[in-house]
Design a protein that fits this description.
The complex is a heterodimer of chains A (about 350) and B (about 325). Chain A has about 350 residues and is an alpha/beta fold. Chain A is built from 13 helices and 12 strands. Among the domains of chain A are: about 70 residues, no CATH class; about 100 residues, no CATH class. The two termini of chain A are about 40 Å apart. Chain B is built from 15 helices and no strands. In chain B, helix 5 packs antiparallel against helix 6, helix 5 packs antiparallel against helix 12 and helix 8 crosses helix 10. The chains are: A alpha/beta (about 350), B mainly alpha (about 325).
């Protein structure tokens, strides 16, 4: 942990000027990823998690994004890299897989051809060598009968098999970092587990770092070493995975945790959705961006913009919340005991939310 | 696949029989003019007209006429004889096919290449001056009627009546085999006039289709793989070209049935002019022949489109 991170994102901002105003998709986020470890970035749709990783690969540039901050990959700043330098990194040192494997594969090209392209984009390999590599990759990701499968089209594969193909393609050049953007969201639950397992196995075998983007705390629990929770373009809480599940600090994280089913909780306990919808990234709420949806917000929370601060007694745990650490701890204990937010507020003696 | 094609061809044959019947109904049961009357000269005597009707076989009941006609077509592959010069229809159409094919295929090639090329460049240079200029020109080309465009070309460039005497004018068509160079130059203006609006429509279609495709997830994947932009664009073009390439054979099919206006403006002896002439002369056998050959080309074009479609898109299967 003490050595240099493989990827360090520093105060990254990504804005898209549009006709309706500037979209602040990513608003000053900082995180790092270490070799051989997995970072989970969690948040609802529109929280900026995908944009931040597309920006890492330079894929938001041609959409007219204004980008500031630094993205240090092995000491190189990817924000200032030329397009050609980035191209040489994409799919080679950093690879990415996407949510919907069907729409992410070219429908008119055979799977083999798409794999061969990935290999030959960065290697001086002959067609035969690249094809041999493609077969090897398909075997590596657990696709049966690669020699036959390699000449098939994506539509002839099942959803899980397609995502395996995507992973094979991402691994073509043994990247140091794999960014997986909701890799299991479009898949059946049973297949989800297989894909996550596969990613874990490959990480062990190849020693790569993984950034897994998801809205599913279950996926995070299963795969990530560290977690960053994003809301409205910012990281609102970040910590090692164990700490986030044991002592979550941010009311938004509580919401995420309480909205997933677990086996431990009593079956009659209803799941609790987070009220409201994610805010507009053009006209963001004042103060703490989460305050309009927060059950515990106080009047001045609409005014003061919280910074990411270390949680007392937990050196690797950071949170951006205006509540007192003491109050947060007691609120979470109440919630974990199965109480509703209103009860928790009364028990803790917090003034009722006013906003 | 072969079974599919055979089935389609058989259906096509059935369709041709239906087309013959319909043409018969349109031109005989609702006649536009009495061919015998037209042939009998000025102030004909009724007796005279009757005689001509006998000779042309118009005196028999319509059902018998239809039966006779279909029998000739189906059993002997004969389409009858022109009322005017007693030439066989097969022969008349036969000598008109080469000019029409020259015109249609050349125009279609120009049409496809220009349309797709301009569309791709416009999409890649979206919002640039070039994009605006070509799309503006396309709008003009779509709006310009082909015969008007043809006349303008003649007035500007024809060797006889043009402002600058660069290209052979109307009536200069010669066969490819007799003088290839003259064949080529005489067709340049007709090709452009015939292809202009189609190419313009295709350019706009191609531009839209490619712009849409470049936002697809698999294009993002191609970039994420680190492919060069040229390869990324090639993947985009490959995916967006299908609907356009599969339309083209249909257009060729229609053009092969004769381009009446352009053939008339440039005085090219093709099927279109033959069809036009035969209709104004109430020359039934020739009308029937030209309608059938046009229908034949369209049926073939449809089959070609289906095969091409399945060939270009592996997700399409014959059933």
């Amino acid at each position: 942990m003490s050595d240099e991170p493989l990827l360090r994102v520093e105060d990254l901002r990504v804005e898209f000027p549009t006709e309706d105003g500037v979209v602040h998709a990513v608003d000053g986020i900082t995180y790092q990823v270490f070799k051989g470890r997995t970072l989970g970035i969690v948040g609802e749709s529109g929280s900026g998690k995908t944009v931040s990783s597309l920006t890492t690969l330079g894929l938001t540039r041609r959409q007219g994004a204004r980008i500031s901050g630094r993205i240090l990959f092995e000491g190189r700043d990817l924000v200032t890299c030329s397009e050609e330098q980035l191209r040489a990194i994409r799919g080679n040192e950093i690879a990415m897989i996407f949510q919907d494997p069907l729409s992410s594969l070219h429908p008119l090209y055979r799977v083999g051809r798409q794999l061969i392209e990935a290999v030959r984009a960065h290697r001086d390999a002959s067609r035969q060598q690249a094809r041999a590599r493609a077969l090897e990759l398909l075997g590596l990701v657990g696709i049966p009968d690669p020699a036959r499968r390699v000449d098939m089209y994506p539509h002839e594969f099942s959803g899980g098999m397609r995502q395996r193909v995507m992973i094979a393609m991402a691994l073509a050049n043994e990247p140091k970092l794999l960014i997986a953007d909701e890799p299991t969201t479009a898949l059946d639950v049973t297949v989800q587990a297989q894909i996550l397992e596969l990613m874990e196995r490959l990480q062990r075998e190849l020693g790569m770092a993984i950034v897994i983007i998801t809205h599913d705390m279950g996926v995070v629990a299963e795969t990530a070493d560290d977690v960053a929770v994003m809301y409205a373009g910012r990281i609102v809480e970040t910590a090692p995975t164990g700490q986030v599940f044991a002592a979550p600090q941010h009311p938004y994280t509580w919401g995420l945790l309480r909205s997933i089913p677990t086996l431990e909780r009593p079956r009659d306990e209803p799941l609790v959705p987070i009220p409201g919808t994610p805010p507009s990234l053009i006209n963001r709420p004042s103060g703490c961006h989460f305050h309009p949806r927060c059950a515990y917000a106080q009047p001045d929370h609409a005014r003061i913009d919280p910074a990411l601060e270390q949680v007392p007694g937990a050196p690797e745990h950071f949170v951006a919340c205006l509540l007192e650490a003491e109050t947060r701890l007691r609120l979470w204990q109440e919630l974990r005991a199965g109480r509703k937010p209103e009860q928790a507020i009364a028990d803790v003696g917090l003034p009722e939310a006013q906003v | 696949m072969i079974r599919y094609v055979i089935r389609r061809l058989l259906w096509g044959a059935v369709l041709l029989i239906v087309v013959s019947a319909l043409t018969f109904v349109f031109f005989r049961i609702f006649p536009t003019g009495n061919p015998a009357l037209l042939r009998a000269g000025r102030d004909p005597q009724p007796k005279h007209v009757k005689e001509i009707e006998q000779v042309l076989g118009l005196g028999k009941p319509l059902t018998v006429q239809f039966w006779d006609y279909m029998k000739e077509v189906l059993l002997h592959f004969k389409f009858g004889y022109s009322y005017y010069n007693q030439e066989s229809v097969t022969h008349l159409i036969g000598e008109r096919v080469a000019p029409t094919v020259s015109l249609a295929v050349g125009a279609a090639v120009l049409w496809g290449v220009a349309g797709i090329g301009v569309g791709v460049i416009s999409a890649l240079k979206r919002h640039s001056f070039l994009d605006r200029f070509t799309m503006g020109t396309a709008l003009v080309a779509i709006s310009a009627p082909e015969f008007w465009l043809g006349l303008i070309f003649l007035l500007l460039f024809a060797q006889d009546i043009g402002k600058v005497h660069v290209l052979p004018g109307a009536g200069s068509y010669v066969g490819l085999t007799s003088d290839p160079w003259k064949w080529f130059t005489s067709l340049i203006m007709p090709w452009i006039a015939l292809a202009a609006s189609g190419a313009a429509i295709y350019a706009r279609l191609m531009r839209g289709s490619l712009l849409e495709t470049m936002n697809e997830d698999y294009i993002r994947t191609a970039r994420a793989k680190g492919l060069r932009e040229r390869s990324v664009v090639r993947q985009g073009v490959r995916a967006s070209i299908n609907p356009i390439v599969t339309l083209l054979p249909l257009e060729i099919g229609v053009l092969l049935g004769g381009a009446v206006l352009i053939e008339t403006v440039f005085n090219i002896p093709g099927i279109g002019r033959l069809a036009y002439q035969s209709i104004s002369d109430s020359d039934f056998s020739v009308i029937q022949g030209t309608v059938l050959i046009a229908a034949f080309f369209i049926i073939i074009a449809n089959i070609v489109v289906d095969i091409l479609y399945a060939y270009l898109d592996p997700r399409v299967r014959f059933s």
